[in-house]
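Entry type: protein chain
Record version: 2
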Amino acid sequence: MVLRKYIGDRDFYRRLFAVMTPVLIQNVITNFVSLLDNVMVGQVGTEPMSGVAIVNQLLFVFNICIFGGLAGPGIFTAQFYGKGDDDGVRHTFRVKWYVAAAAIAVFLALFLTCGEGLISLFLHQGEEDLDLAATLIYGRDYLRVMLFQLVPFAVSQVYSSTLRETGETVLPMGAGIAAVIVNVCFNYVLIFGKLGFPKLGVVGAAVATVIARFAECAIVVIWTHRHRDREPFIVGAYRSLRVPGELMKDIAVLGSPLLANEVLWSAGMAVLNQCYSIRGLEVVSAFNISTTVSNLFFCAFFAMGTTVSIMVGQLLGAGELEQAVDEDRKLIAFSVVLSAGVGVVMALLAPLIPQMYNTTDTVKGLAVELLMISAALMPLNAFVNSAYFTLRSGGKTVITFVFDCVFLWVMSIPAAFVLSRFTALPVPSMFAVVEGLNFIKGALGFWLVKSRRWVNNLVEER
């Protein structure tokens, strides 16, 4: 009988898979193509692969800033949609445009003025005696081209996030699939100079990504405007950019901690990787392989996080508070079980995937060890991720800030800093210790979710 609290009925899983499956498919395809891209660049050599990996770590901060900035208004979007308030959805859509424009301006200025210096922070000589100067040049050239994809990426997310929050998850998936097909095709011809195209190496990889971002953006935007009957929020969305002051204030109050959390969290992840990079450029390469492969398998609980935010957010907005609590518990349980199974598959494949890279045996061996650790900790990370999205769905953004970002900067980063600089602990052991700190985070998440502080209807009086 106890298990019934964690297992839903047929209708529950039908709704779960209806939301999760398109998001999961899009994430899997996107990350699978990222793996293929990574392997293609890896065929050029360790230094090009490392340069691209460093820049992608910096661009990751921008990507997460967009996700975090849109998440604040997105909380209201899901609840307005659950309430049936098209005007409310329209207003939150406009807020997302303001956030995206600000993020583009800030990061474009940062990368243009400080890009080369930021790349240099990750360049340290290790045991392999790799060429740091060449790595810097590869990274710089790659970044210059990748700046052109900031705008289409942000615009795509403004539209796609709103579509998902209003129940349309298939179209963003389709746009993502089209984009990755475009990306992998142009990667092949531009990196290696096939079919009469010039051989551009890492610059070719960047050009392919830019083309793919514009393709994805065009699909999402055009579809939305051609399906006004299905997406009524877009009707009149640009007649005015005005947002009610009270709503803007509420979004700012709830969204600012969330945005700060995502920016500081992504920056913290960059700092964390910089700590590991102290041990040498081969460590950067190994983490690049491990992270790219892990992200493919992490799609399971990443998709469940989105599912939690959508399903629970809509129930809260509709005033079904007890049902929201019940389904949230079942969603978290499903995410943990699913991730445990995926972790087993990842562990079995971990020794094989790094062999596809044209790099040294040291890098490959280190990547395998990092992958095994990530696989073992996947159920824990799935629970932490679901707890985070549960708290966020109810608007508890200050709590999520403490739960996610403060923990990273107070616990994980100091641990990595000390271990990397003042001990001789091997990199895999250091990684296991730092990631293992998430057991504390998991215990905190369990208490916060069980306390029901997140059970709030934010749009009841609107």
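Comment: The chain has a mean pLDDT of 87.
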